[in-house]
Amino acid sequence: MCCQEPGRAFVLNKERWVACKGSQPRYRGYPCSVWTLFHAITVNAEQIERRNSMFDPKEVPVLMNAYIQQFFGCRECANNFGKGARRISSDVNGRTDAILWLWKSHNRANHWLHNDPTEDPEQAKIQFPSYKACALCRRARSYSMFDNATVWDEAQVLQYLTHFYAKSYIKHDTSTGGWWSLSLTGCHCVSFVSVMFRRRE
């Protein structure tokens, strides 16, 4: 069970969520937007640094874990993320490994939070992507959307994630006073992307 009880989840009263909007204000919102932002960062960091021979793919998830440990309000959630981060040194070696590492981490979290009181009853936490979204990502259609034992075709998953979180989905939203928004979420997230992934000259 997550550390936040129903009705006590962190809510930003002035924010208007779009794709991360829950059926009630206490659902989804900020945690959803953090996952979405992190997925976009892993994909775009690899694409931006593709020709940089000095690029260290571990840098991205290590910084994400540091952010979660310092700033994410749910301590149990941060601790669980940190447990997964212990595998960064062994799991993230190739240029695209961080993309798949984060995807696996997110699906593990969804598995453990499925049927948790913090789960939005109208938007269940599934193993992403669904069969409908990416039929080729699953090796068999019969696996449940909630089964963390699903057999994945990771090459297809990587292709799907790389397309879904591509740069074309990110736009500068001047209505937020210079903040960045992810058009696939509609959430407003401070752009620490430029701080984390400033190109090396």
From TrEMBL:
GO terms for biological process: protein folding. It catalyses: 2 R'C(R)SH + O2 = R'C(R)S-S(R)CR' + H2O2. Transmembrane segments: none annotated. It is an enzyme of class 1 (oxidoreductase). Keywords: Disulfide bond, FAD, Flavoprotein, Oxidoreductase, Signal. InterPro entries: ERV/ALR_sulphydryl_oxid_sf, ERV/ALR_sulphydryl_oxidase, Sulfhydryl_oxidase. The keyword Oxidoreductase applies. It holds the Pfam family Evr1_Alr. Residues 23-128 form the ERV/ALR sulfhydryl oxidase domain. SUPFAM superfamilies: FAD-dependent thiol oxidase (SSF69000). Gene3D superfamilies: ERV/ALR sulfhydryl oxidase domain. GO terms for molecular function: flavin-dependent sulfhydryl oxidase activity; protein disulfide isomerase activity. It comes from the Eukaryota. Its EC number is 1.8.3.2. Its cofactor is FAD. The keyword Flavoprotein applies. One of its GO terms (cellular component) is Golgi membrane. This is Sulfhydryl oxidase. It comes from Ridgeia piscesae.
